[in-house]
Every structure is written in structure tokens, then in C-alpha cells.
Amino acid sequence: MTEIKPNAAHWGFFDAVIDKGRVTEVRPFGPDPAPPVLLRSMADAVHAPSRIDQPYVRKGWLRGERAGAPRGGDAFIPVSWDKVTTLIAGEVARIRAEHGDEAIFGGSYGWSSAGRFHHAKSQLQRFLALGGGYTSSVNAYSYATAQALLPHVLGTNEVLLGKVTGWDAIARHAKIMLCFGGLAAKNGLVSAGGAGAHDYIPSMRRAVAAGVRLVNISPFRGDTEEELGADWIPIRPGTDTALMMGVAHELIALGRPDEAFLASHCVGWDKLKPTLADRSPAWASAITGVPVETIRTLARDLATLPSMLTCAWSIQRADYGEQPYWMLVALAAMLGTIGKPGQGVAFGYGSINGMGTTSRRDLPSPSLPSSPNRVQRFIPVARIADLLENPGGTLPYNGRDLPLPDIRMVWWAGGNPFHHHQDLNRLLRAWSRPETIVVNEPWWTSVARHADIVLPATTTLERNDIGSASRDRYIRAMHQCVPPQGLARNDHDALADIADALGYRERFTEQRDEMAWVRHLYERWRVNSGRMGWEPPSFEEFWAEGHVEVPRADAPYTQFTDFHTDPQEHPLDTPTGKVELWSETIAAFNLPDCPPMPSWLPPRESLLSAAEDELHLLSLQPPTRLHGQLDMGRVAAEAKIQGREPITISAADAAKRGLKAGDIVRIHNARGACLGGLKIREDLLEGVALMATGAWFDPLEPGVPGSLCVHGNPNVLAPDIATSTLTQGLSAQSCLVRLERWEGPLPPVKVHVPPPIELE
Ligand SMILES: Nc1nc2c(c(=O)[nH]1)N[C@H]1C(S)=C(S)[C@@H](COP(=O)(O)OP(=O)(O)OC[C@H]3O[C@@H](n4cnc5c(=O)[nH]c(N)nc54)[C@H](O)[C@@H]3O)O[C@H]1N2
Ligand SMILES: Nc1nc2c(c(=O)[nH]1)N[C@H]1C(S)=C(S)[C@@H](COP(=O)(O)OP(=O)(O)OC[C@H]3O[C@@H](n4cnc5c(=O)[nH]c(N)nc54)[C@H](O)[C@@H]3O)O[C@H]1N2
Ligand SMILES: [Mo]
User: Fold this and answer.
1) Do 638 and 724 fall into the same domain?
2) Rounded to the nearest 5°, which phi and psi values hold at 709?
3) Phi, psi angle pair for 340, to nearest 5°
4) I need a labelling partner for 663 at 20 to 30 A (CA). Which of 101, 196, 586, 707 fits?
């Protein structure tokens, strides 16, 4: 007899069909206007051969090969839950006693899974905080650079990760929308926490139907859906700031800058304006490859039409990624549009489902209460290799020198640094330094393979939870669908037993079991929502119904309207209360790589400095999965070429190298090499290569830095260099490579089955 139960993932709400204890199929959530294709991979994932069936310990670690030992090459030894609990509790206690709480790195960056209670990273951090604390990380890989910069410029990160001006307001008031990096359809498949409504594409379509002209400024035409009929302006990667400056120069020539707004709402125009004098369209054209006339036309359009400006998050994941963001704010300031209905500037409309798409009333989301961390040490998220390589050193960040503690233990739950970090060969070397590395994972992903102690975690389908994405209008009851696979356990339960061994179980569990927690989170949310004027139904009704719908907001939303109307009464949270086109704060930091106003700084790697045979590699968000998640599913598998991750180049570049679609190629630079399967497009700028992230790192010789990744993980190629010493973000997109046909026998992809396992 089949059963159907509600559940959720970052790629959407769904109903699981269960037959004889297995999920056979998942069906999209009824109210979802555009259910994502990724749901097709869900059943594959839960029962995949790459599930971790029980706890394991690295053989070398058991033998005492710890600090300094290479990781990733050893066999794993199966151990019992009792043994692994004792081992970990012993290590935590020893390291805290011998080296202090800061010797444990628990930053554990990663998306984990949907479901607010069983969110692995939150569980781990709560566990570590209650046990004495841990060294942590700040900001997200997604937009680390912007997160550190924008508070200096606009006094807020709301334009990036908060409630941005809605598509409905844009549709009503704007006539043109400049999209740096486009509005890639694939990015709307996901929202953190799971979403009941994929409004991403429908919102754009409605804006276009209402008369908004979209301009896709990107090396790739496919960065806007064909149906949107966007204009395409191909641009060399990493040169957007130069284009913005060329447009600004032309706006000045047209006498368009809104001098009144610049005087009343901004500081620094007097300093920025003179620097734009030699940023002519001809200057910008030589850098960007965009024709002079196109730049002039863009400026004329902006001078006359109500406009919204946006930039994909990817553009700040590049060398000096501060600059395009700051310059885009400057452009909107010059136009005086910040805070005008449906106009202005915001970041990421094309980066994720939910940006400006929902008209959810201002209400909280259910979440796990965190515990204060007593250790004050942290790194900006993408500086993990620096941290491990440089114990006792310092790292400049946002005007401070951060002390780097001596990390003896690393613990990751719900994230995959061997997916998300750049220059994996450097990471692999740095990763050998700690004494002990613990990873909680449902699958044998690359981070689990590079751990000393592996705890098998359940997936969302094996537990009860609440699904909620902050911008979505639905809250999901996630019902357990199947029993835990193998000996997998919920992260919470595994941590509760370790807390028990360390003497703080009750503080960690607060004497609640899973359902008591789920109910507790719901009740907390119900009370908080009630305080804000809307009373959700009782827990029983919610659980039986499978979801709750949160009311819509009544009016289209525009950011900064109060500030626009009265900047004295409603100042920004910057030192001057205004938009800072020049920052005294940043000037005082005196940084060589981040001047105090928007500036053109040529990227360290780009087509501007490339050799004849080099290509600019953009490592994009995958259309077939979420990062490394679902790589084992059918949607990702169907898109691969002989099991390798596709890499797309232009027809001209393929012809130059005598390559054809379907060829297996070796892509390489001084940092590393991987294989890929070739795809060819006419609508991609010559000199550019596109390869998605997320194919699980599969080195030919596991544990040996520099080994060829046979599967196609672009992070063996991407540089691990900070965007600047102000923000210390990642600069993955500034990456040059060469490629040629792979002529040898094709090494098998081995990463989707467990690593070698030996009995003790
Ligand atoms: N070159 C390059 N690199 C990039 C980017 C890029 O553009 N280019 N983009 C960056 C960005 S924006 C991001 S956000 C990061 C993403 O990097 P991550 O968030 O680290 O990637 P995920 O694959 O989502 O990792 C989540 C992990 O949690 C595991 N997991 C899922 N459910 C559970 C659970 O219940 N319990 C436990 N314990 N584990 C669970 C999954 O199996 C998966 O391995 O990558 C970054 N890396
Ligand atoms: N399907 C799917 N969707 C996702 C994710 C996923 O893993 N899978 N991950 C989610 C996450 S965590 C995040 S942070 C967001 C990230 O969202 P983004 O950062 O916006 O996504 P990307 O695909 O990296 O980049 C968007 C587009 O920018 C263009 N681009 C890259 N470099 C340049 C440049 O220098 N100049 C210009 N003009 N264009 C450029 C590329 O052609 C690319 O298609 O995506 C989210 N959405
Ligand atoms: Mo991200």
C-alpha cells in the first residue's frame, strides 16, 4: 500500500510517495506555480549507494597518524555508535583542556538541508556553544564581499539579503531594468529552507508583460530566459565596473546626474565625479568589449526611463568584487532613483528564488534558538585555508587585524568545503594540519571522504521538521516518510549523546525529543506572529493540513522610500546618514586593494591579461542540482557527458582548438586540473568557458594534492585569493584556464560509491 506524506527540500515543497519503506517518487506541492525539475532527483538521493550506512573512522587516525597526515587516501574502519560517541567526546574534552575552546573550528559553513529544527549547522553550533564555544566564521560564500562592503555604503545589507523592492513595484513603475549577470532561470530553482512558491520566473514574466525592458549584461545570452525577450549586451567577465563607469561618464556628458539628490542624499560625489572624467565610453569599450555606441545608448535610456539596476551575486565573487557593487549604487545615486517607487538598486533578483517575488506580510520565520558563543575568534568565511595554514597569525578584515587561533579540531555538519572552497589542492594541504576532523554527512561526499571521523546523518525524509524560507509565503509540515537508512541518525540525536558523554545533554536537548522541538518551534513562531498581528492556526491543524499559508502584503514594496522622502528624518545607518560614494571609514583603513570610493581595478586574472590560448572560466551555480547536493540524482546524471561535468565554450573557441561537442577535455592551470565534457554554444562570448560547480571532487589519486579530478570540479582551478583586505570574500570567478582534448583512456568516476572500507 502506498502512502503520501508532506516534506520539503531547498528545491521545493513536495509530497513523497512511499511504497514498502522506500520513497518511489515525489510530487510537487499543489500551489507551486513553477515546481523545480530538481524534485526528480529526490528519491534517487535518499536511497543512493553513496549513503553512509554507519559511523566510520579513518584507519590512519586510529593508528595515531593525525596532525600532518594527508587526508582523503586512507580506508575507513566501521565502528559502533557507542565507540564513536566516546571517541569524539574524548577528543573534544582533550582539545578544550589542552588548547582552549578556540582550538575547535565550528564555522561549518554550508546550506545543510531544509527544515528549521534539523538544520545541521545550527545543531552543531548550538552543541559547540553550550560546550564552551568554538572559532566560527562570518558571512556567506554567496555574497561575502557585499556583506562586508554594503553597510559602509548604504548602512544595511537589506539590498542584498533582506526584503528588496518587489517585482510588482518594478512592474508598475520601471521601464528598463539593467541586469548585470542576467537573471538566470536555473538560479530560481532553490531557496534556502525550501519554498512553496517558485515565483521567480512568473514574476519576471509579469514585469516584462507590464512593459519593463530587461537588459542582460553578461557573457552568456542564456542568462535570461528566451521568452523574456531581453536585450543582450555581451561583456568580458570581471569588467562590469568599467562599463558602469563608461555609462556614468556619458550621463555626466548628458547633464543628467541628479545633483539635488546627490547633494541631499549622498556624500562623496565631489570626489567621485572628477575620477569619472577619463572614464569615457571609448575607455570602457576597450576594457569591456562593449561597443561605444551601446554604452551611449544605455546612458541615454537610463537618462530618460525609470530604471531598476541589479547585479548578480556572482559578480562580487571575483577579484575586487566590491567595486561593481559600489559603482552600481553610485549609478543609482546619480539617477536619484534610490527609494523611488519600483526603481533604484538591489542585488540578486536573478540569484535565487524569492528575491522581490513574494508579497509575504512582514512576519518572522520559525527557527532554532541559537546559543551565545563564548569564543570571540572568527574568520571571514572564505579564509579557511589561511586559518589552517597560519596558526598564531593575523588576517586583516574590515579595518581590524583578526588573530588566527591554532586550530586542532575541525567539525563540519551540513556543509562541504571540498565543494565550496577554491583551490582545492591548497585546501587539501591545509586540511592535513588539524589533529582531528569530524564530519556529519548523509552521503560519502568529498568532505566526508576527507574526514577522520564520519557520523552518518539522516536526510529530511527520515525525520519530522518544519520547512520555511524567509521570503516564502508557506510554512511546511515535514513528516517523516521512511525510517533512517542504515544506522544513520539525526544530527540532533548524535550530538545529544556526545553532549551526554560530556555532561550537558539536558542543556542541549532542553529535555525535548524531536516532536516536542518541532512543536516548540512552531509555538514560538505562532506567538511571535501573533504579536505582529496575524495568528497562525494551532499546531495540530498545521500538522494535519501539511502547510500554513502566510497572508500576502497589501501593497507593492519599495526599499528606502522614507529615506527618499526625508533623509534628515530617516537617515541611513552610515556614519553620515547618507549614501556614501566616498567612505571616510574605508579611507582611514588605508587599504591598497580597496580605495574609499568606487574604482576600476583590473582583475588579477581576466581576458585583459590572458595569453592567446587561455579562457576565462566562470564556475556557475548548477542547473541540475544544489551545489554538491543531488549530484547523485538523475537530473545531474542525465546532463553529464560520459559521466563528466559539462563545460561550455563558444563555437569560435571550439573551432580554434579542433574540438567538437561531446569531447572529453582536460581543463587546467597552475593550481590544478580536471576533466569535463564539452558543450558548444553560439551565444557565449568568445574567450569564456562556463562550468557549473557541484560535481563531487574525485581525484585520480585520493589524498594526493595536485591529482587530476576525473569528474569535473572547477574548484581545483579557481583561485583562493581574497577579493580585498576590506572584505576577504572569495574571488572564484577570476580564473584563467587552458583546455585540450583528453586522449588517454577515461578514468572511471568512483566518487558515487563508498570509499575503501576495511574491518579493524
Ligand atoms: N568555484 C565556485 N565555488 C563556489 C561558488 C561559485 O560560484 N564558484 N559558489 C559558492 C556558494 S554561493 C555557496 S552557497 C557554496 C555552497 O557550498 P555548501 O553549502 O557547502 O554546498 P552543499 O553541497 O549545499 O553542502 C551542504 C552539505 O550538507 C549535507 N547535508 C544535507 N542534509 C544534511 C543533514 O541533514 N545533516 C548533515 N549533517 N548534512 C547534511 C549535504 O549532503 C552537503 O554535502 O559554494 C560556493 N562555492
Ligand atoms: N539551480 C541552482 N540554483 C541556485 C544554486 C544552485 O546550486 N543551483 N545556488 C544558490 C546560491 S547558494 C546562490 S549564492 C545563488 C548564486 O547566484 P549567482 O551568483 O547570481 O549565480 P551564478 O550562476 O554564479 O552567476 C549568475 C550569472 O552571472 C554571470 N556572470 C558571471 N561572471 C560575470 C561577470 O563578471 N560579469 C557579468 N556581467 N556576468 C557574469 C554568469 O553568466 C552567470 O550565469 O544561486 C542560488 N541558486
Ligand atoms: Mo550561495
Assistant:
1) yes
2) -85, 115
3) -80, 140
4) 707
Retrieve residue 86's grid coordinates.
Answer: 566516546
Please check whether residues 27 and 68 belong to one and the same domain: no
70 and 186 share a domain?
no
Are 135 and 171 part of one and the same domain?
A: no
Ligand 1 site, residue 619, Cβ cutoff 6 A: yes
Residue 559 in any domain: the answer is no
What is the distance of C-alpha 99 from the center of its chain? 32
3-state secondary structure of 471: coil
188-196 average pLDDT score: 93
Q: Are residue 184 and residue 231 in the same domain, yes or no?
A: yes
d(CA 246, ligand 3 centre) in Å: 30
DSSP conformation letters of 333-364: HHHT-TTSTT-EEEE-TTTSTTTTT--B-S--
Last residue of a domain, one of 358, 393, 408: 358
Reduce the DSSP state of residue 333 to 3 states and report it. Answer: helix
Tens-digit pLDDT profile for residues 505-532: 999 999 999 999 999 999 999 999 999 9
Residue that the C-alpha cell 583528453 belongs to: 742
CA 62 / ligand 1 centre spacing (Å): 28
Determine the atom of ligand 1 nearest the C-alpha atom of 142: 12
> Which of 314, 352, 471 maximizes ligand 2 atoms within 8 Å of its Cβ, making it the mutation to test the pocket?
314
**In ligand 1, which atom is closest to the CA atom of 620?**
7
Domain housing 22: 3-46
For residue 212, give the C-alpha cell.
519593463
Identify the domain boundary among 549, 577, 607.
549
Q: How do residues 209-225 score in pLDDT, each as one tens digit? A: 999 999 999 999 999 99
Atom 32 of ligand 1, nearest CA residue: 113
How far is ligand 3, taken at its centre, from the CA of residue 280, in Å?
A: 34
Residue whose CA is at the smallest distance from ligand 1 atom 19: 110
Same domain? For 225 and 98 the reply is no
Work out whether the CA dihedral 646, 635, 313, 651 comes out positive or negative: positive
Helical packing angle, 322-335 and 144-154, nearest 10°: 40
Q: Note whether residue 598 is domain-resident.
A: no
Residues designated as active site: 109, 111
d(CA 189, CA 466) in angstroms, rounded, equals 20
What would the DSSP string read from start to end of 213-230?
A: EEEEESSBGGGS-GGG--
pLDDT beyond 90 at 364: no
Choose one of 198, 351, 471, 690 to mutate for the ligand 2 pocket test, by most ligand atoms within 8 angstroms of C-beta.
351
| 515 lies in some domain | yes
User: Hey, how many other C-beta atoms are within 10 angstroms of the C-beta on 431?
Assistant: 24
Q: 56: Cβ below 6 Å to ligand 1?
A: no
Helix ranges (DSSP H) in 403-481? 417-420, 424-430, 446-449
Residues 638, 545: one domain? no
- Same domain for 35 and 87, yes or no, is no
| Cα 628 to ligand 3 centroid, rounded to whole Å | 12
Mean of the pLDDT values across residues 223-234?
A: 97
Q: Compute the CA torsion angle 509, 510, 515, 516 (nearest 10 deg).
A: 180
CA distance 54 to 488: 6
CATH number for the domain including 256? 3.40.228.10
Say if residue 359's pLDDT is above 80: no
Amino acid symbol at 2? T
Q: Give the count of domains, the chain.
A: 4
Which residues contact residue 354 at a Cβ distance below 8 angstroms, ignoring those fewer than 6 apart? 191, 195, 199, 200, 469, 470, 471, 472
Residue 758: inside a domain: no
- Cα 690 to middle of ligand 1, angstroms: 19
